[in-house]
Amino acid sequence: MSRTVFCQRLNKEAEGLDFQLYPGDLGKRIYDNISKEAWAAWQHKQTMLINEKKLNMMNTEHRQLLEQEMIAYLFEGAEVKVDGYTPPTAD
């Protein structure tokens, strides 16, 4: 059975994550307050950020940067700015 959370990113009730995907207190906060839909959107943005900025996940500073972007995106309603990426426009 799926669980429902009030997603802070989408600002609505939505299907919650099946388990905690991120470690520590932040992971618990994500599990309790972020939906599968919002997490999937973040994963897509994260991949674009890693590729665009050529981030190395073995580098502590790079991981911290990514975590700050994740917090801003999931909890503060910020959009991820990826240099050189233009979102597709609807016709």
From TrEMBL:
Keyword check for rRNA-binding: no
GO cellular component, one term: cytosol
Originating species: Oceanisphaera avium
Job description of the protein: Could be a mediator in iron transactions between iron acquisition and iron-requiring processes, such as synthesis and/or repair of Fe-S clusters in biosynthetic enzymes. Necessary to maintain high levels of aconitase under oxidative stress.
Family note: Belongs to the Fe(2+)-trafficking protein family.
Family matches, as HAMAP family: Fe_traffic_YggX
GO MF annotations, alphabetized: iron ion binding
One of the Pfam families matching this protein, by short name: Iron_traffic
Annotated signal sequence range: none
UniProt keyword annotation of Iron present: yes
NCBIfam families in the record: PRK05408.1
GO biological process, one term: cellular response to oxidative stress
UniProt keyword terms in alphabetical order: Iron
Protein name per its UniProtKB record: Probable Fe(2+)-trafficking protein
Superkingdom of the organism of origin: Bacteria
